[in-house]
Amino acid sequence: MKILVPVKQIASLDDQFEMRDDGRDVDEDYLEKDLNEFDHFSVEEALLIKEAAGDGVEVVVAIIGDDDSDDALRTALAKGADRGIRVWDDSLAEADGTSVARILAKVVEREKPDMVFTGAQSSDFGSATTGMALAGLLGWPHAAVVSNLEYKPGASSAKLRRELEGGLEEIMTIRCPAVLSIQLGINQPRYASLRGIKQAKQKPVDELSLDDLGLGASDVEPAFHVRKMYAPERGKAELITGSAAEQAARLAQIIKEIRGM
Amino acid sequence: MMTAASDNRVLGGVRDCDALTARVLAVGDLYVALGFYTDAAPEIRSALETVILETRRQRLIVAAAPYAPSDLLDGLSMGADDGLALRLAKNPATPASALRRLLRRCSDPRTRRYLAAHPNADAMILGELSRDNVIEVLQAVAGNPGTSPEVIARLAAIDDGSIQRAVAASQAADAATLARLWDLGDDWVRADILAHPNCPANLLAIAAGASDVRLRRKLAANPMLDAEAMEHLLADPDDGVRAAAVRNPAILAEEIDAKNEASARVRRLVARRPKLAADVIARLARDPDSWVRRWIARHPDMPAQLLMELATSDVPEVRRGVARNPSCPPHLLVLLAADRSPWVQAGVALRDDAPAAAISLLLGANDRDVLGALGRNRNTPAATLEAIAGSDDADVRRAIVFNPAAPQAAIARLAGDPYPLNRAMIVGHAGLDAAAVAELLDDPEPQVRFAAARRLARQQPDLAVKY
């Protein structure tokens, strides 16, 4: 029995940052790289199933990224995943969620997992498309924002709970294999032990190219391109002081300024 | 250049120093190199700088790091571009020499604002920035505690509410400046002037009869008030004024008598004062408000008889207050160790002076507060501390870090703790042996590597032989 957990290395911003010269992204120098927060939960959920079942479950983590993303992959391996897969090609530098899903669909074809757990979204771009698109490409059932899961390896269905708007929750049964997008808080992710971190360096990682998966650059062409990224001008706050009459006068003045009177 | 003798002192012998330096340079890690930098000889520093400042990303990290050595930040300020300059201006560890350098070629108003607010900005920097034409920069100068009385006096004349408020709160504002500001500012500024220790006496007298409650509240906080004025304010009809007076450190214990105080808010503040008359303590110990009782239960002058009475309170926080009271007698600590509330038991477990009988009663506990407190207690048996070091709860395990009597086995376990903060903190434990510190140079967490390198560079020379 095998669970595939696709993970992502995300970029978080420094408190003061600068844009790239082309104005389409933040300058790389101002970005801190880390494993996507949501993926800590999807990896943990897979590991909990593995530990509850004993030896019969293999957890495989997969990442689409360059050499730098190896750190995120090793973080997941250090927690207890059995092996890793890293797919990279320079043509993937601007890959969107759908392109990533196309690659992952090929990985699923190759690995034949019984379940796929993705994070509900990535904490840098937050598109929440990868899991959904992957399920669509595979023709598998999909459930998003899964906040509780009851699944026994080999079972033909799983029972799960999903978070809905307004504090509602939905309990549903899903046919397996399935793609589940795991929500924050479903479990308490573990920290990797120092021993786990050392062992992770020795764990096998398959490094695959698009060719290895039978894909070409045209198969992973993004559906959209970022034209511009910028920080909009912020509104200004003013503390209005003085007597009630003075405050009212200042308020009237501000309203006039805004309305151009 | 540092002498060999100095190297011996810092890194334990030339041979060790060379080996350790070679090790640090071979690791090529920013945080390990930063940890060694301060204690390294100049020629070693330049080698470390090649590691620390290798990429622009690393230079940005160092420029923003408050733990970065000031000499390194000084060097980084030479030729700093706008991005680096902004980070250096915000970094509280940046020395005055670097700030002056940044100011000389600074065109960005944001950076000038941070320079003006910087705790290391000297009189020259603040004097120059006080003539800036950007109002936010002037506001920052006015709010800087290092700004001189002359500059503060000049800024007081600017018609800007934020600057005037900052001037009114500045310790550098003298009586003449405050007197001028009284006529220029609004009620908020005037209120701040009344709380200032340099506030002119005639203004204090005016404010004592003011109808505006803001003015009286601020006046009651002035540490220079005389006893007569304080007595008047303690009888003020507004409880906010009375509360400010009770908080005022200038008030004497004998001036406080909460006998007829109707406001629980004021009585709570009275109960927190370090010096109180015996009759006031006794009255507050039987106060109907449980917050008053929980504060007074901690009062060091509380007699044993009243502590015993408070120990039977229905409110666990009151009983916890008794357990935390330094005057709590040993037999009462034993009684509270068997309390039905783990929060009270934890209060006993935190005390190094708790009798052995009290500690024994707590050893079977499984509550996280009690375990965490036992983990800090130097009289907890070694076997219990070792069990705490293996707890499933990372916060409970961390208690070992604060226990100077923790056994080696517990300390070693923390050095391999999965929770990075626990590893970073155990590096500072005197009981962690040098070999274990050196192992942590390879830790995946930057803060652990930095702390380990810092400790090795400061005091652990022999380890270098290992490498």
Set out the fold topology.
The complex is a heterodimer of chains A (261) and B (467).
Chain A: E1 2-7, E2 9-13, E3 31-35, H1 37-53, E4 58-64, H2 70-79, E5 83-87, H3 97-111, E6 115-119, H4 130-138, E7 142-150, E8 157-163, E9 169-175, E10 179-182, H5 194-200, E11 205-208, H6 244-259
Parallel strand pairs in A: 1-4, 1-6, 4-5, 5-11, 6-10, 7-10
Antiparallel strand pairs in A: 2-3, 7-8, 8-9
Helix pairs in contact in A: 2-5, 3-4
Chain B: H1 4-11, H2 14-27, H3 30-37, H4 42-52, H5 56-64, H6 70-76, H7 82-90, H8 96-104, H9 109-117, H10 123-129, H11 135-143, H12 149-155, H13 161-169, H14 175-184, H15 187-195, H16 201-208, H17 213-220, H18 227-234, H19 239-247, H20 264-271, H21 278-285, H22 290-296, H23 304-310, H24 316-324, H25 330-337, H26 342-349, H27 356-362, H28 368-376, H29 382-389, H30 394-398, H31 408-415, H32 420-426, H33 434-439, H34 446-459
Helix pairs in contact in B: 1-2, 3-4, 3-34, 5-7, 7-9, 9-11, 11-13, 13-15, 15-17, 17-19, 19-20, 20-22, 22-24, 24-26, 25-26, 25-27, 26-28, 28-29, 29-31, 32-34
Largest sheet of chain A: 9 strands, mixed
Distance between the termini of chain A: 71 Å
Q: What oligomeric arrangement do these chains adopt?
A: heterodimer
Strand coverage percent of chain A: 15-25%
Output mean pLDDT of chain B. 91
What's the arrangement of strands in the largest beta sheet of chain A? 9-8-7-10-6-1-4-5-11
CATH superfamily of chain A: HUPs
The share of residues in helices of chain B is: 55-70%
Number of strands of chain B: 0
Low-confidence stretches of chain B: 1-15, 462-467
**How many domains would you count in the coordinates of chain A?**
1
CA-based gyration radius of chain A: 23 Å
**Contiguous runs where pLDDT drops below 50 for at least 5 residues of chain A:** none
Specify the overall morphology of chain A: globular
Largest interface (CB < 8 Å): A-B, 20 and 21 residues
How would you describe the shape of chain B?
flat
| Top CATH class of chain A | Alpha Beta
| Total beta strand runs of chain A | 11
